[in-house]
Amino acid sequence: MIEVLKSKIHCCRVTEANLNYMGSITIDEDLMDAVNFVEGEKVQVVDNNNGNRLVTYIIKGKRGSGCICLNGAAARLVQPDDIVIIMSFASMDLEEAKTFKPAVVFPNPKDNSLS
User: What pLDDT, in 10s, does the model give residues 24-61?
Assistant: First the structure.
């Protein structure tokens, strides 16, 4: 078994950082659906502005809101308006991994819309 990229939201804009919330990342449900993320899924977040990388889990955000909110301790590593990449990975055998295609979206970084 190897780990491969399963899903990625590439270069979306952080809309909020909420230090006073239990840790996680809140993601617009439309974005979640577009890349097959599920609530509670473990994700890696990479901040293109400062190079910080962190691991957390997803909380479902309001559909159509464009919400990308880092919560709890992660709010100290990522600031509103930073551009981030959000990725999840899956384990599979080598033969399956050779043909697997991850779900990737490139939202508009102005409002995180998919259009």
Answer: 999 999 999 999 999 999 999 999 999 999 999 999 99
Task: Provide the token pair at 63.
Answer: 């559909």
Domains (ranges, CATH) in the chain? 2-89 (2.40.40.20)
Catalytic position from the list 7, 21, 24, 115: 24
21 classed as catalytic: no
Instruction: Respond yes or no: is residue 57 known to be catalytic.
Output: yes
- pTM exceeding 0.85: yes
